[in-house]
Amino acid sequence: DAGVTQSPTHLIKTRGQQVTLRCSPKSGHDTVSWYQQALGQGPQFIFQYYEEEERQRGNFPDRFSGHQFPNYSSELNVNALLLGDSALYLCASSFNPGRYEQYFGPGTRLTVT
Amino acid sequence: TQLLEQSPQFLSIQEGENLTVYCNSSSVFSSLQWYRQEPGEGPVLLVTVVTGGEVKKLKRLTFQFGDARKDSSLHITAAQPGDTGLYLCAASGAGSYQLTFGKGTKLSVIP
User: Roughly how many angstroms between the first and final C-alpha of chain B, as a whole number?
Assistant: First the structure.
């Protein structure tokens, strides 16, 4: 039973560039959430996708956008990268009726120089 | 914005010792979860508690949800080096899909 997978594992970008991160949910899950984890901090909620729509959003600017595909996989896009966007980006999946339980992928480490 | 405060922030103990870490908030939560995260990896779910006063055991780990559903504790008995990691509590409020995380307790168990 495949868990949550994310790609790429590491990424280095320059300020002002754009980046796309990808996530495949755990088998049987239909809901995907994205989190940003800065060094030494707990993860912070960016947004959640269900039925291909953004269902809830955290306190992140519009530079952060996402998409969910019919197969439930998801992408996180960040435009106009800032140095402060350097972080571990985590994807979590869940089965909607059991929304308490979220299962995390290994994350994508983004470094902005 | 709901805030979760975890204490202590850092904990270094010898193998075989017992320890307790705490997660507190001024808000009431509909559920609370504990995760363990190792460097460079995503958090791994340990337990979910939803009922005030609930106690759950997972081998040497005991989790408790406060009666008022505002706080929780994680107790580890006879800690082992394999317990080393960052312990995170996370909670969601009624009607919210967002998980709010604490900053975590970084545990080191020395052999």
Answer: 40
**Shortest Cα distance, chain B CAs vs residue A80, angstroms:** 25
Q: What's the pLDDT tens digit per position in B65-81?
A: 999 989 999 999 999 99
**Residue located via tokens 């055991």:** B57
Is the pLDDT reported for residue B1 higher than 60?
no
Contacts for A62 with CB less than 8 Å, ≥ 6 apart: none
Residue numbers in A near B92 (CB within 8 A) = 99-100
Find out whether B88 and B43 touch, Cβ atoms under 8 Å: yes
- Closest CB to A103: pick one of B45, B96, B98: B45
| Low-confidence stretches of chain A (pLDDT beneath 50) | none
Contact by Cβ (8 Å): B2, B99: no
